Amino acid sequence: MIEQISNPHRIATDLAAIVGSAHVSIVGDTVAVVPENTEQVSSVLRFCNRAGFSVSAVGGGTKQRWGTPIQSKIILHTRRLNALLEHTWQDMTCTVQAGCTWSALQNSLAQHGQFVALDPLWPDRATVGGITATNDSGALRLKYGSLRDLIIGMTIVLADGTIARTGGKVVKNVAGYDLHKLMIGAFGTLGLITEITFRLHSLPVHLKSFTIISPAAEPLGSLLLQLLDSHLNVQSMQLRTKGDVFGLDVQLSALPEVLKDQTILLSAIAHKAELSIEEACAELWDNRVLSFTGSDVFTMKATMLPSDIARFTRIIHDLGGTAVTQATGIMTASLPVTLEHQLPQLRQQFIDAQGSFTILQQPASTDVDLWGPMPDSFSLMQRIKQHFDPNRTLNPGRFMGGI
Fold first, then answer.
1. Are residues 18 and 97 in the same domain?
2. Residue 24's domain is classified under what CATH number?
3. In this structure, is residue 372 part of a structural domain?
4. CATH number reported for the structural domain that contains residue 267 in this entry
5. Euclidean distance between CA atoms 291 and 301, whole angstroms
6. What is the pLDDT of residues 36-49, one digit of tens each?
7. Where are the alpha helices (DSSP H) in 330-377?
8. Which of 95, 237, 291, 338 minimizes the number of CB atoms within 10 Å of its CB?
């Protein structure tokens, strides 16, 4: 696809006819457009697809550095798609537009004692659509699952402007293809999400967080596996580097009388392993964001078996990095820029252990391979991209292998 925007003012005029002149702007050779609803998004994409212009959607902009950097000619902002369209609290479902921030959504749902059981990064700025496109999740995944477990329906605008609706508005709906699961984690390369329907859970009321500390990671790794196999009501759990030591964070959720007994049991388990335990504040569950601090670090996402969490946490620590690993085996870590030459070897260690290694962000001074070896499914992924977006209109090159 060849892009030619020799006269961005002409393009802005055409887009203004769709969304209104107040919602189109020009920055250099790039045209920004801010549609109000799904129908306007459809018209914008239809126009861009026919004209041969690439389009990137932007919500809160918190994850624009994730994936391969690209420069699309049309930037579609979702900030006007920011409404909670429907909250059927009796059925514990809701439908929300993609440009709504995560915290605004949760605050509205909390009025009925409900929430979407997910804890993404930067909730005050990150939008529902961006979180879904990058498949972000935190420690709550241990109890409630990922976005693919929480999303039951979606409205998508395909590259040619076709509006597709998948799933439904009730939890037990099983009609049609699970097209929305294909969109989750696709980095906006297959379709532009405009509305999402979530299944909801009741807000946990009685919570207690603890940190168990050890100078070595291995005892905490063994304890993590023991707690996964126990009868404790563990809502969240993560193993992290903590300065010169390591910390295993555990959050319990139960009725007050049960929570008291489980606190005693958790303390007994820690003391039996000769490990110190202390009550902690809820803010410790935000430690994952520390991996993105600084412009001179590589921020990586890796996966591994739970039995390998302690080993890889120690490896990152010994390399001078920081890491937070959920009990599900998903690690977010940062490494100094000076370790650039060691990244291929480190990636291979994860792969050899049946895991994966992806660089989410890298310093501006480096140019390393973000994705690593292409998976066996890569040819299938290419065919899916070709089927959904033959003109390569949506985020071309953002995902692995230039998809």
1. no
2. 3.30.43.10
3. no
4. 3.30.70.260
5. 10
6. 999 999 999 999 99
7. 343-352
8. 338
* Overall number of domains in the chain: 4
CA neighbor of 305 nearest in space, from 325, 326, 286, 329: 329
Asked if residue 374 lies in contact with residue 333, where contact means CB atoms within 8 angstroms, the answer is: no
Spatial distance between the Cα atoms of 312 and 335, rounded to a whole number of angstroms: 13
| pLDDT at 2 exceeding the cut of 70 | no
pLDDT of residue 169: 73
354 exposed, middle or buried (CB, 10 Å; 0-12, 13-18, 19+)?
A: exposed
Q: Tell me the residue range of the domain where 89 lies.
A: 84-202
Helix runs in 273-397, H state only? 309-318, 343-352, 378-388
* pTM passes above 0.90: yes
Enumerate the β-bridge partners of residue 330: 303
Residue 397 lies in a domain: no
Q: Which helix or strand (DSSP H or E) is residue 245 part of?
A: strand 245-253
Separation CA 298–CA 292 (nearest Å) = 8
For residue 7, name the pLDDT band (cuts at 50, 70, 90).
confident
Residue 1: per-residue pLDDT: 42
Alpha-carbon gap, residue 85 to 35, rounded angstroms: 16
| pLDDT digits 0-9 by tens, 319-356 | 999 999 999 999 999 999 999 999 999 999 999 999 99
Residue 218 lies in a domain: yes
